[in-house]
Design brief:
Radius of gyration: 13 Å
CATH superfamily: Winged helix-like DNA-binding domain superfamily/Winged helix DNA-binding domain
Distance between the termini: 31 Å
CATH architecture: Orthogonal Bundle
Number of helices: 6
Strand content: 5-15%
Order of helices and strands: HHEHHEEHH
CATH class: Mainly Alpha
Oligomer: single chain
CATH topology: Arc Repressor Mutant, subunit A
Shape: globular
Strand order of the largest sheet: 1-3-2
Number of domains: 1
Helix content: 55-70%
Structural class: alpha+beta
Length: 101
């Protein structure tokens, strides 16, 4: 296990917006514009969070011309999200609905 990389991934999961992005992507892949609308954030803010998730291999990128879409790196992230949800069944829906508490 690469301790530094694992620590960086856990830190990324600790940010409410990035966790919301991962929960949304767990349901289905989305393009930046879709995530921007669902999260009610500016495109630049969404893109910054996605870059961090991409750099840590937590999401996958698909390009179609100028459209950039993202999907969850399910092999790596889904078990973590499932564990978090199983320990807080009410919290998972709150995260995807925009609540952070």
């Amino acid at each position: 296990m690469n301790i530094e990389r694992t620590s960086a991934r856990l830190k990324a999961l600790g940010h409410p917006t990035r966790l919301r992005i991962l929960c949304l992507l767990q349901r289905e892949g989305s393009c930046v514009q879709e995530l921007e609308q669902k999260l009610e954030l500016r495109q630049s803010n969404v893109s910054q969070h996605l870059r961090i998730l991409r750099d840590l291999d937590l999401v996958r990128v698909m390009r179609d011309g100028q459209t950039v879409c993202y999907s969850l790196n399910a092999e790596l992230v889904k078990p973590l999200l499932d564990t978090l949800e199983s320990n807080d069944p009410d919290g998972a829906s709150a995260v995807t609905e925009g609540e952070t508490q």
